[in-house]
Amino acid sequence: MKVPSISTGELKRVLTYWDVAALAVGIIIGSGIFAVPPSIARSLDSFGSMISVWVLGGVLALCGALCYAELSAMFPRAGGAFVFLKETYGPAVSFVYGWSALLITYPASIAAIAMVFASYFSRLVPMSAGAQVILAAVLCLVFALVNILGTKVGAGVQRTLTTGKVVALALLPIAGFLLARGDFTRFEGGMVPSGGWTLTGWALAMAAVMWTFEGWAECPTIAGEVKNTRRDVPLGLALSALSVTVIYVAVNASYVYLLGIGGVAATDNVASDAARVVFGSQGEFWITLLVVVSTASSVNGSLMGGSRVFYAMAREGLFFRTVAQVHPRLGTPFYSLALLGVISASFTMMGTFERVMRYFVFMAAIWFAMTIFAVIRLRRTRPDVERPFRVPLYPFSPLLFLGVVISMATMLFIENPQDALMGLGLIALAVPVYWLWKRTHRAA
Fold this sequence. Notes:
Elements: E1 7-8, H1 17-28, H2 32-43, H3 47-74, H4 81-89, H5 91-124, H6 129-148, H7 151-179, H8 199-213, H9 229-266, H10 270-279, H11 283-315, E2 325-326, H12 334-350, H13 353-358, H14 360-381, H15 396-415, H16 417-443
Antiparallel strand pairs: 1-2
Helix pairs in contact: 1-7, 1-9, 1-11, 2-8, 2-9, 3-8, 3-9, 3-14, 3-15, 4-5, 4-14, 5-6, 5-11, 5-12, 5-14, 5-16, 6-7, 6-11, 6-12, 7-9, 7-10, 7-11, 8-15, 9-10, 10-11, 11-12, 14-15, 15-16
């Protein structure tokens, strides 16, 4: 059998705004909506204060998504934040971003979600803890292979999984309000928690909510494969941010309606408990199946989006050229996909990503702030660059996002300086690596 030759090249533009939205929604709705609400209810123990952080999270997601849309329309090529940072601050900053993305951000996030998948799958098919780890690693490798087989193949799987979980998740609040005997008086109460508003409590709650919304930032990574980047990326970003906000608010409202704010705070399986009220003993089975599909969708989408970052790094000469190679028949950055799949699988086998995830949000906040600020900086330094899409309500939109993210990152640093410093240390370590890379690259 003759193996086709491999060559570097451009990725084909075969995706639409539905693919962009499916990627974002598929990554955003992972395990967060099933795990985060109880922790928020414990610190913000009134319905008004609890729901306010979810609404604010949706507003911030929309502001951030629209900022990314402007940048994507300006630089319509694969790579997302890596491209935006390089165009705004230069190759050194983008290299550091890529370094943290390769070693921490993407593989740790993918591995963590894969482990949630395996944990819930074991409720359907009982298996040992060791078998769950193997299953999580296999999931990373299988979805890497699925995306290697073709961009349309990976996007088709993403659309199918995302549609399934959105429909299933939407049924919970619909059935909850129509069929179950909840209590609307549980929505009573003001906007102030019983212990009053504290900056630390607000920051920790917002960090959790921001994590559940984080996937919208993955849309621009596939901009180089979207047919009409000027229209489809902004539209896909806006659709994903708005739809997820509506779903999250509705689901949290149904949790409180069915269980009460105290019931939400007291459980670690809020979705299962709520579904049991609506569907009886079968409720837990359906929620378990929903989490399995939801996490599988997030893993597939994260592999698809993350691989384009490393492909873009290699294209720009900031990573090994091999990673920029595109298969001539399949049209995918298969080396990049394989690399991310293997590293993610390794994280699941090592079992060391739990602590990494604790400072994941802090590191992500730094890069979010720098990327959003790029909109303001580029408006000043490169005003003549064509902007097919402009952020509405500028500069309010980016400034609102920046204000909240910087405040949140500051409080996270104060709350847990050790893990935050570890994240900053990893970023600092990339500086001499960049210097060494540039030196050896010039020598070559």
